[in-house]
Amino acid sequence: MSNDRKVNENSKNEQLETFRVDDEGKKLTTNQGVKVSEDEFSLKAGERGPTLMEDFHFREKMTHFDHERIPERIVHARGFAAHGEFQVYESMKEFTKAKFLQDPSVKTPVFVRFSTVAGSRGSAETVRDARGFATKFYTEEGNYDLVGNNIPVFFIQDAVKFPDLIHAVKPEPHNEIPQAASAHDTFWDFVANNQESAHMVMWTMSDRAIPRSFRMMEGFGVHTFRLVNDEGKAHFVKFHWKPVLGSHSLVWDEAQKISGKDPDFHRRDLSEAIDNGDYPEYELGVQIIKEEDEFNFDFDILDPTKLWPEEDVPVKIIGKMTLNRNVDNVFAETEQVAFHPGSVVPGIDFSNDPLLQGRLFSYTDTQLIRLGGPNFHELPINRPVCPFHNNQRDGYGRQTINKGQVSYHRNSLAANTPSPASEEEGGYVHYQEKVEGRKVRARSKSFEDHFSQAAMFWNSMSDAEKQHIIDAFSFELGKVKSKSVQQQVVDMFANVSLELATGFAEAIGANPPSSEGSQVTKSSPALSMENTKKKPATRKVSVIIANDFNGPEVSSILDSLKAEGIQPEIISEKLGIVKGSDNSELEAAHTFLTADSVLFDAIYAAGGIAKNKAFYQDASSFINEAFLHFKPIGVTHEGKTWIKKEVENSKGVVVGENSSGFAEEFIEAITAHRFWDRQIV
């Protein structure tokens, strides 16, 4: 190496050295070097008051976070969407003046984007993660965005901590590992040191975080909002989406394998269902609390780490959403859609939930850089269906060609137009709420309970669901290298359940907790997925057959399955026509090379005689994996020789010869979805 090159390299290293910063042991400052006295709470008007715009630290921190990645979304980057329509069942005039919630004959267009949170655009879809469930209503009064998740609570109580949460769960910055996973040190270190996350962590370690389908998961608005009626009377409200097909999950081993077999599993499922005319349906529900009852609960209704138990505040079902059209262009629609919880219509307003208050600032700021400027509302997917008029002009991506010389309010040259609309004319008027208090960086003491609802969630689970949660903690913390972090998490979740903490402590080799555990005995049956309604429609059943199968019987069984909306798909030795004993024909869409057990909800081993003896071994392995994933299995004729005797005598395994009786029993098993108490062989 020449001396000149050495000098150049040394100079470059010296130059770079001036930019290298080690933050360990230093005091927290703003980017301007001002030392920060508090990084847990945004500045509010009183402990339960709204966040103040003068909080320069919060705005700087959130602005920097919003602009960290371009053009991909920083969170919810991996998403898929569809168009549809919403109809209210009955007028909600008693509670809100929002027009789209008044007339049951009116169909409101919607656009819904489902997403994972942690992964980038190329990541797998069946990872353990919360799922975004964002709905844009194109109402006659303007766009209303219900921007929620498939989990009703969140990790943090104040938006100022959102960048910290996402930094912790994203791939670690020193090696960019792992992708789309929370099973690593920084996430669990965040959890252990931010114990308000306990409730959300219980949900993400449950089966809710590995949904079977976007079509089979609930959605929640998460925050407390207000409904305001024509008289100006307000009620607190939480929003729910209830899937008509019921809520179902994958099992963890199955979810991991699907990530490799089909990383597009969820988007493919949604797209194919719509193409097949099996339109996903969700009923909209609301939980409503009178303003005078705000403080009548053992939790703060504004705390985003708390839910309102359905047994205490029933969910009123008020309408249905149907997704009936796939997008034409993923980039133009799914990627360019801009949601914002601040996009509301008259009759829907905000609460002082500090996480919601921060989101009202953050979303617009994010879209400015991701979509290239202030005119993202003019992109076709974001345009309201009603006309819009204001004095805003120019900017990147401007499409509107405004006529006239006036671009300001209060003018005589254009007769003072466009002019504000009165409340009677449909103008949005914010709900008048008395707000007073000292400007403080603090959190209300009513937000201090971090474990009672996490314990309630645990108490509400079935035995199988509890074991899945223990297994999830064991896997996640088994990937954590820091023994200290592992032990901190064990000790933390002893406050939720000694059974839980002891269970995963033993699995990861940590010390058992010394805490006395939670004294909470309350449960909420609605939280268990085992208690949700179940329908067999749209479940996929792999039908394993070979030539010379029993034609009349198989045909009858397939007809029975299809009559219930179940979707059979044929697997055989080769693609193409398979002939039955009566010369009937079925077309095989898969072989064992192109299909996998984890991609189906149930297995029907119909029988037949294969030329290749390896077919029987493949069929047996295929069925056994489904058995290990607790799925329904039906077998007839030669299919009985493809399963183990121990499998044949287990729950959820239907063996039969009579097509009508067999079909009925097999459909019942498919409806049940899983058989958790099955003996593993």
TrEMBL record:
Which regions are flagged for Polar residues bias?
Answer: 512-530
User: What enzyme class is recorded for this protein?
Assistant: oxidoreductase
Query: What does the record give under GO molecular function?
Result: catalase activity; heme binding; metal ion binding
Q: Which residues form the active site?
A: H76, N149
Tell me which InterPro entries the record gives. Catalase, Catalase_AS, Catalase_clade2, Catalase_clade2_helical, Catalase_core, Catalase_haem_BS, Catalase_immune_responsive, Catalase_large_C
Q: Where is this cross-link: 3'-histidyl-3-tyrosine (His-Tyr)?
A: H340-Y363
Q: Which CDD domains match?
A: catalase_clade_2 (cd08155), GATase1_catalase (cd03132)
SMART domains reported in the protein's UniProt record:
Catalase
Annotated stretches, region: Disordered: 1-24, 509-534
Domain named Catalase core is located at 29-417
The yes or no answer to whether the keyword Iron is present is yes
From which domain of life does this come? Bacteria
The entry's cellular-component GO terms read: cytosol
Keyword Cell inner membrane recorded: no
**What GO terms describe the biological role, i.e. biological process, of this protein?**
hydrogen peroxide catabolic process; response to oxidative stress
Reaction catalyzed: 2 H2O2 = O2 + 2 H2O
What are the required cofactors? heme
Residues engaged in binding heme: R73, R113, F162, R359, Y363, R370
Please state the Enzyme Commission number of this protein. Answer: 1.11.1.6
The entry's keywords: Heme, Hydrogen peroxide, Iron, Metal-binding, Oxidoreductase, Peroxidase
Instruction: Return the PANTHER family for the record.
Output: CATALASE, CATALASE-B
| Membership in a protein family | Belongs to the catalase family. HPII subfamily.
Q: What does this protein do?
A: Decomposes hydrogen peroxide into water and oxygen; serves to protect cells from the toxic effects of hydrogen peroxide.
Its recorded name reads Catalase
Q: Which organism is it from?
A: Bacillus gobiensis
Taxonomic lineage: Bacteria, Bacillati, Bacillota, Bacilli, Bacillales
